[in-house]
Design a protein that fits this description.
This protein has one domain: Tachylectin-2, Chain A (5 Propeller), CATH 2.115.10. Helix content is 2%, strand content 37%. The structure holds beta-L-arabinofuranose (FUB). The site of beta-L-arabinofuranose (FUB) has 14 residues, from strand 1 and strand 15.
């Protein structure tokens, strides 16, 4: 349910039809990356605020400054806000726009991975560490070398390797990196530098992390998303092509790469036998929510799988004031996921 239609929404009626309610309502939270560490649920969201920035298609109104970690003892228990975990003022290289983060754990240290705009106006991805899953986190002095764009998601494979998946179109600047270096020429428009509709869509990236999880161990590689015939999805196929919000999880030995289609507002996914892909498009996990953006994570908790996602129902449709929610997802026998409708009739 994209932003353009919100003036017609009866939010009281909609909230009654919603399949779940915000996990916290004292602050706005979005882009939830959920993990199950040591028998407890930790959610690493964006912390939405209204900073008074004008709306534009580059997402300048998403002017977030810090992160809070949300924790839950179990899926049915109250969600706790553990306070500020990292502020942009404590990240030497970052100027603004603390967008969708993720976290992971290795040998008792917790790593917060986050995108932010550096002082030159280019999005980079940084790392901050803490001995606690809830922070506070201490940022590395520089962004990850060779990082660019937004929405990092760090997946730990069964062999102990960690991979970062990332990228995002329009305000996320992925289209400006088509030639391998940042295209700084004007115009700073969300659609400049995009492929034509009949060309292959821009692809997200993956890079294996170094053992200390602070740098890329390799040059990032593109991740192919293909149709059932093995053909790359096209840029004009905007109900299926990648836009932002990468996530990787494993189910029954298969790799599931899920993402948002951005301007068509779906959470979709593809399946592969390899963490580098190619991923064969399989369908939608979540239909459009109230608000322009859709962003999610999939987390297995005590044998059940959950989709953490957000919508703008609490703010009555303000697209940059979102709330994190959770709903169980179901797999069919062939490994496909039953599409969730966020508001039931
Ligand atoms: O929260 C800011 C941006 O909005 C995220 O980085 C995108 O995924 C979208 O949710």
């Amino acid at each position: 349910m994209p932003e353009e239609s919100i003036e017609h929404i009866d939010f009281d009626a909609l909230n009654k039809k919603a399949i779940s309610q915000p996990l916290v309502s004292h602050i706005y939270t979005a882009d939830p990356s959920a993990h199950y560490f040591n028998g407890k649920i930790y959610i690493y969201p964006s912390h939405d605020v209204d900073a008074g920035e004008a709306f534009d298609d580059l997402g300048s109104h998403f002017a977030m400054e810090d992160y809070h970690v949300i924790s839950m003892d179990s899926i049915d228990s109250k969600a706790i806000d553990n306070g500020m975990a990292l502020h942009v003022n404590d990240v030497p290289w970052a100027e603004k726009q603390m967008w969708a983060p993720d976290a992971n754990e290795k040998d008792g240290t917790y790593y917060l991975f986050f995108p932010a705009k550096a002082y030159d106006g280019i999005f980079r991805i940084g790392v901050a560490t803490s001995p606690s899953p809830t922070g506070p986190f201490t940022a590395q002095p520089e962004a990850i070398k060779g990082s660019f764009s937004i929405d990092p998601a760090v997946f730990k494979d069964d062999d102990g390797s960690y991979y970062m998946y990332f990228g995002g179109l329009w305000g996320g600047q992925l289209q400006r990196w088509r030639t391998g270096t940042f295209n700084a020429s004007e115009p700073d428009s969300p659609t400049a530098f995009l492929p034509d509709d009949n060309e292959p869509a821009l692809l997200p990236y993956v890079a294996k992390m170094t053992d200390d999880l602070l740098e890329f161990a390799e040059k990032p590689k593109t991740i192919e998303i293909v149709d059932e015939k093995g053909a790359l999805l096209l840029a004009g196929d905007n109900e299926r092509r990648f836009f932002e919000a990468a996530w990787l999880h494993k189910h029954n030995g298969k790799y599931y790469f899920s993402y948002s289609t951005g301007d068509t507002h779906f959470i979709c996914y593809g399946i592969s036998d390899n963490p580098y892909g190619p991923f064969t498009y399989k369908g939608r996990i979540l239909n459009p929510v109230v608000g322009w953006t859709s962003h999610h994570s999939v987390c297995e908790i005590e044998g059940k799988s959950y989709l953490f996602y957000h919508d703008s129902s609490l703010s009555k449709g303000v697209t940059h004031l979102r709330s994190v929610k959770v709903a169980e997802i179901t797999y069919l026998e062939d490994g496909t996921i039953v599409t969730l409708d966020p508001y039931k009739d």
